[in-house]
Amino acid sequence: MSKTILVVDDEQSIVTLIKYNLEQAGYQVISAVDGEEGLHKAVEESPDLIILDWMLPGLDGMEVCKELRQRKVSTPILMLTAKDEEFDKVLGLELGADDYMTKPFSPRELIARVKAILRRLQNIPKEEVELPEEKFVEVAELKIFPEQYEAYFQSNLLELTPKEFELLLYLVENKGRVLTRDQLLSAVWKYDFAGDTRIVDVHISHLREKIELNTRKPLYIKTIRGLGYKLEEPKQL
């Protein structure tokens, strides 16, 4: 069954270009021309992925993204922006976007990004399941089930984006190792972000908010100054 992708952009030429290339790649496409319509379709039609423009009339892309995450809609979001400031990219990720692309972009790269995101999601269950009993990795009160794409902290299911989950899993699987930001970019994002290591910092911050009792004195994810990060077994809980 083909995946459905929602394209939200007020430029008809962009929508037409994206729609044509996605359909050629085998995806079903629905579209919206403003933020309000995009938010409605994202909630009501449950697409597998959302391609969302930053600059939209009325409700802009940032507001749509923020509203969806507040409603606990975990559909991955690929943000499109004509702006090339690092602040814009990081802000989008902080508000819940999973990835971003800067206009102009090549259709080939867009399809590659879409496939990468959906490939990471193929094992995510549609509904919550009871805590599995096997095939997990564990560090203290943190337990991760790779096949179910689920992570638990203190027996509570964590609300993680796909990128947060993969980053956490990679850290756990490399427990005790110092990992540079470039290593984490390569392992989790799979393609070159040309040194945009702030993306890693944003996701580390999100993870700490969910698994650390005190984010200023983290017990699990430690910052190694000048190098990167290391996940370790807490010395005290």
For the sheet with most strands, the description reads: 5 strands, parallel
Question: What is the tally of beta strands?
Answer: 12
**H-E string:** EHEHEHEHEHEEEEHEHHEE
CA-based shape: elongated
Global Rg:
18 Å
Share in helix: 25-40%
Low-confidence stretches: 124-132
The CATH architecture term of the largest domain is 3-Layer(aba) Sandwich
CATH topology of the largest domain: Rossmann fold
| Cα-to-Cα separation, first versus last residue | 46 Å
User: Which secondary-structure class do the elements indicate?
Assistant: alpha/beta
Spatial strand sequence of the major β-sheet = 2-1-3-4-5
Strand content: 15-25%
Q: Figure out the total of helices.
A: 8
* Average pLDDT: 85
Q: What is the CATH class designation of the largest domain?
A: Alpha Beta
What is the name of the CATH superfamily of the largest domain?
Response regulator
Can you offer a commentary on this structure?
With 237 residues, this protein is α/β, with parallel strands linked by helices. The chain has two domains: 4-121, Rossmann fold; 137-231, Orthogonal Bundle (Arc Repressor Mutant, subunit A). It is 39% helix and 20% strand. The protein has eight helices and twelve strands. The protein has helices spanning 12-24, 35-44, 61-70, 86-94, 107-121, 162-173, 181-189, 198-211, and strands spanning 4-8, 28-32, 49-53, 77-81, 99-102, 137-139, 142-145, 150-153, 156-157, 179-180, 221-224, 228-231. The strands form three sheets. The protein has a five-stranded parallel β-sheet, with helices on both faces. The protein is elongated.
